[in-house]
Amino acid sequence: RFARWNDKIEGLAGLEARGITRVLPEEKHAAGIRQYVQMLLLWFSINLFSASIFTGLLGRLLFSLGWKDAVCIAIFALGLGASGAAYVSTFGPESGNRTMILGRYFVGYWPSKIVCVLQIILQIGWGVISCIIAGQMFSAINGKGLSVAVGCVIAALLIGLIAMFGIACLHVVERAHPRRYAWLPQIVAILVLVGNSAPHYNTSASFAGEPGTLTASRCSFFALLFGSVVAFSAASADFYVYYPTTTPKWLVFSMTWSGIWAGTVLCNIVGIAIATGIDSNPRWASAYEISSGALLYACYDGLGGFGSFCLIILALTSVTNNAPFTYSAALAIQVLSRYAKAVPRWVWCVVITTVELVCSVAGRNHLLRIFENFLPLMSYWVVPWLTIGVEEHLIFHKLRGVPFDWTAWEDRGRLPIGAAALVAWLMGWAGAIIGMSQVWYTGPVALKVGGFGGDIGAWLAIAFAGVVFPPLRYVELRAVGR
């Protein structure tokens, strides 16, 4: 009976039935200038949404940074984080494999399963954030007629529906391109927001505190923004598997990096600017006490129904822009085992949507705390994984002249064992622990930053994993041969 229902569902127009199976060279689609520009527009559109505005708010509201400090940090932190995602994305056309399958080549068959679990948690976390943001905005528009909880339910259902249809609904190379113009209403809504709220910005705002505390706040805000973007590394290759294997890597990198950086920088700077006006604008301060969504609604104050329409656009983009990552989380579940792979991807989308719905309703009043703790924490596992992947590619394949065997994607007998990568990855975690600075824990090294505690966990994770992996991998290759 389930098989019959599955056939009917997968027969729906536009629903992508394919799971994690490698896309073979002969199955790929032709691509031209339009499709390559689509790479940029896909990522620009994904990142042109309200969650990026809210991360910008934290520069002033959480870390008390001034306008210049926060903007400079945003420009460089987001650019650096985007580099990691752009690097991983270059393997999508070449390999035809999803990002978590690439993890098998980077860290080995068995350790990659741990990474998959963390990837699932990461993407569900982003889904929860998006649901809460959209729910808050739906509630702000509707007043007391719609609670944040109901708004979260609506958002979660919409995310799940889009993710079920897969890459065909997000970004299809050969025939449909719904996201080509999706950024237009988003950019209009954001520009209207800026135009209406700009008179209240205080760009002369500066940090008021000890120099050591300023250093710590700069480090922590940099880490938060870096973590919010480098996490895309765990999913960025998923959207390019249908591109030709001959697609130039430099083109994939540059289009992906530009799209991510442009979208996130624009929105974060808007968030930073709004935060500078909260201290001097009682209406904004009162709205922010209600919710972040109410704050954005207050920024459209005076525009009447048009302002509500613009906020609806931002709320809907919080939904549609998170759907690609719910899609990636479903793929990550299929990588876990052959039993999970046998379950259709759309079923996992339903399961993930249910989890996002429940968690968003439960956490709807704690958005700031989720942002503060979740975003940096997720980068602690991504950056050592990414460091190992870069070294595996450049040192043990590029320099040795040994190409990856992409046909071995599900043959654990031909994939790396992963002992060296696992030890290096755990060492990276150790570096993150002693360098992290969170509300609930501050590492001994982090405490040395400014005498107050600044987050340098990601950088220590990179250093520890980067130093440990090469010699261990050399020994592993000599002993095992793969």
Global shape: globular
Poorly predicted runs: 9-15, 171-179
Rg, nearest Å: 22 Å
Can you give the helix content as a percent range?
A: 55-70%
- Name the beta content range: under 5%
Average per-residue pLDDT, rounded, comes to 85
Give the N-to-C terminal Cα separation: 43 Å
Describe this structure in words.
- 70% of the residues lie in helices and 0% in strands.
- It is mainly α and 482 residues long.
- Helix 7 (111-142) crosses helix 18 (345-362).
For this entry, give a set of tags:
globular; 0% strand; 482 residues; mainly alpha
Summarize the structure.
It is built from 21 helices and no strands.
Topology, element by element:
Blueprint: H1 2-10, H2 33-47, H3 50-61, H4 67-89, H5 91-95, H6 99-107, H7 111-142, H8 148-165, H9 167-170, H10 183-197, H11 211-230, H12 249-278, H13 282-290, H14 292-299, H15 304-320, H16 323-336, H17 338-342, H18 345-362, H19 367-398, H20 419-435, H21 457-480
Helix pairs in contact: 2-12, 3-11, 3-12, 4-11, 4-12, 6-7, 6-19, 7-8, 7-14, 7-15, 7-16, 7-18, 7-19, 8-15, 8-16, 8-18, 10-15, 11-19, 13-14, 16-18, 19-20, 19-21, 20-21
